[in-house]
Amino acid sequence: MHNAEARRRSLAIAARIVSGELDPYDGAMTIWKTILETLPDPIPDDLWPFKSCASAIEDYVWNFEQGGANADAEIIREKEAIVRAATALIAAANILSNKR
């Protein structure tokens, strides 16, 4: 899979995140694990937040499970960043489709 296909597949998940149909963390994990990990090229900048935010949430949860501090506020911020990334991805796709 290449970047254009990764964006196309990520858009469908991003739309579900923005609509509230899919939890931001679950959507970002799906994008990361099923799309971004299959790319032969470096992850594009516009898709990077899905991996980085999902990874951060994963770390916060693991740390808490190991007896660390509760990171609910940080998790909320990461989820908000995922929604912003999803919204930006959709907006960029709409701009491109309107130019055609």
3D architecture notes:
This protein is mainly α and 100 residues long. Helices cover 74% and strands 0% of the residues. The protein contains four helices and no strands. It has helices at 3-19, 24-34, 48-65, 72-99. Helix 3 packs antiparallel against helix 4. The longest helix has 28 residues, at 72-99. The radius of gyration is 14 Å and the shape is globular. The model has no long low-confidence stretch (mean pLDDT 93).
Map the helices and strands.
Elements: H1 3-19, H2 24-34, H3 48-65, H4 72-99
Helix pairs in contact: 1-2, 1-4, 2-3, 3-4
Beta strands, count: 0
Order of helices and strands: HHHH
Tally of DSSP helical segments: 4
Alpha-carbon Rg, integer: 14 Å
Measured as a percent range, the helix fraction is over 70%
Mean pLDDT: 93
What proportion of the residues form beta strands (DSSP E)? under 5%
For the report, how would you describe the main beta sheet?
none
Net shape: globular
